[in-house]
UniProtKB/TrEMBL annotation:
SUPFAM superfamilies: Fumarate reductase respiratory complex transmembrane subunits. Keywords: Heme, Iron, Membrane, Metal-binding, Transmembrane, Transmembrane helix. This is Succinate dehydrogenase. GO terms for molecular function: metal ion binding. It is found in: Membrane. It comes from Arthrobacter echini. Residues 1-22 are annotated as: Disordered.
Length: 155
């Protein structure tokens, strides 16, 4: 009986034709590769600390509410911590998706549109997330009445 042969993956697929100019793109891909390694290691520390503080050292998931976030974000440290997590996670994920688009989108126009959508979505999420972190007011004055929550300073 003959041994069956298994074709290599994507053997019938045409490799995407990258249109590179004669000028070198520099070290962008090497810097992007290095960024992925460094940001991934830093994100592991940031995320596990975030999870520990929010879920394990406190009252668990039932303790995470508006008051918990307001009390936490009263500290500049936690605002910067969460902002760093947001920015690193978005840039890390965007870079990973960019590599996937480069690998699997066969037409240059498809790559251009997919990356355009990716970069637009990333910019919108980063801008909105940054605005939420820096404009969050845990003690709003609504109709002339100040909040009386325990984390709000006396007015």
């Amino acid at each position: 009986m003959a041994t069956p042969t298994i074709e290599s993956p994507r053997s019938g697929r045409v490799a995407p034709g990258y249109s590179r100019s004669s000028t070198s793109r520099g070290n962008f891909e090497m810097i992007a590769w290095l960024f992925m390694r460094l940001s991934g290691a830093l994100l592991v520390v940031l995320i596990f600390t975030h999870l520990w503080v929010n879920l394990i050292s406190g009252d668990g998931i039932s303790g995470v509410d508006f008051g918990f976030v307001a009390g936490k974000w009263a500290s500049t440290l936690w605002r910067i911590w969460d902002l760093t997590m947001l920015w690193l996670a978005m840039l890390h994920g965007t870079n990973g998706i960019r590599v996937i688009i480069n690998d699997y989108a066969e037409k240059s126009s498809t790559r251009m549109w997919l990356k355009g959508v990716l970069y637009t979505a990333t910019a919108v999420i980063v801008v909105l997330g940054t605005l939420v972190i820096f404009t969050f007011d845990p003690c709003p004055v609504i109709d002339g009445v100040a909040s009386t929550a325990s984390y709000c300073p006396a007015v």
